[in-house]
Design a protein that fits this description.
This protein is an all-alpha fold. The protein has one domain. The protein has seven helices and no strands. Helix 1 packs parallel to helix 4 and helix 2 crosses helix 7. The longest helix has 25 residues. The termini are far apart.
Length: about 170
C-alpha cells in the first residue's frame, strides 16, 4: 500500500517508535523496583504500586483507543508499514498488563485491612494477625495467576518483613 504523503507516514512511524520505547519502560516496571537501593518498602506500598499501575494502564489504553490513534494504526496497516506489527504488539501488551493489574488488584486488596491493622498494632499483638495474613497470601497465590510468580511473592514477603522489623 502506498500513501499520498510519505512525510506523514514517516512522522507517524517516528511517533510509533517513541511510543513503543516509552510504553515499554512503563510495562517493565514492577513492584520489585521499590527494593532497589536503601529502600525498605512496606506491604501497603505494594498495594499503592498496583493501584497506580492499574490507573496508568487505564489511561494508556484510553489514549491508544483514541480515534486519531486508531486512524494512525489504520494508515500504518494500509501502507504496510514495518512499524505496524510493533504498534499492534504494544497495544496488546498494554491490554494484557492492564488485565494483569486488574486481576492482581482484585486479589491483593483483601490484604489491605490486615496490613493496616498490623501496621498500627502493638508488637505483642502481632502473632494473632499472622495466620489470617498468611491465609490471604495463600489465596492470592492460589487464585491469582498474575501474582503466582516467585519474584512477586518474594517481594511481598520482603515488604511484610520490613513492616515487622520496623514494629
Amino acid at each position: 500500500g502506498e500513501i499520498t504523503d510519505p512525510q506523514l507516514k514517516n512522522a507517524m512511524e517516528g511517533v510509533i517508535i517513541k511510543w513503543v520505547h516509552q510504553i515499554d519502560e512503563v510495562l517493565r516496571q514492577d513492584a520489585g523496583h521499590m527494593h532497589q537501593g536503601d529502600n525498605f518498602p512496606k506491604p501497603l506500598e505494594e498495594l499503592t504500586f498496583w493501584t497506580t499501575r492499574k490507573e496508568n494502564l487505564t489511561h494508556l489504553a484510553t489514549q491508544l483507543n483514541d480515534k486519531k490513534v486508531l486512524m494512525m494504526s489504520n494508515i500504518l496497516e494500509i501502507t504496510e508499514s514495518a512499524y505496524f506489527p510493533a504498534f499492534t504488539k504494544m497495544c496488546a501488551d498494554v491490554k494484557l498488563a492492564y488485565h494483569e493489574a486488574c486481576d492482581i488488584m482484585v486479589h491483593i486488596t483483601p490484604l489491605k485491612p490486615l496490613l493496616e491493622i498490623l501496621q498500627e498494632c502493638e508488637y505483642t499483638e502481632i502473632p494473632q494477625y499472622i495466620p489470617p495474613l498468611l491465609h490471604c497470601i495463600c489465596i492470592l497465590w492460589a487464585d491469582c495467576p498474575a501474582y503466582r510468580k516467585p519474584d512477586r511473592i518474594v517481594v511481598l514477603f520482603k515488604e511484610i518483613s520490613n513492616l515487622l522489623i520496623e514494629l
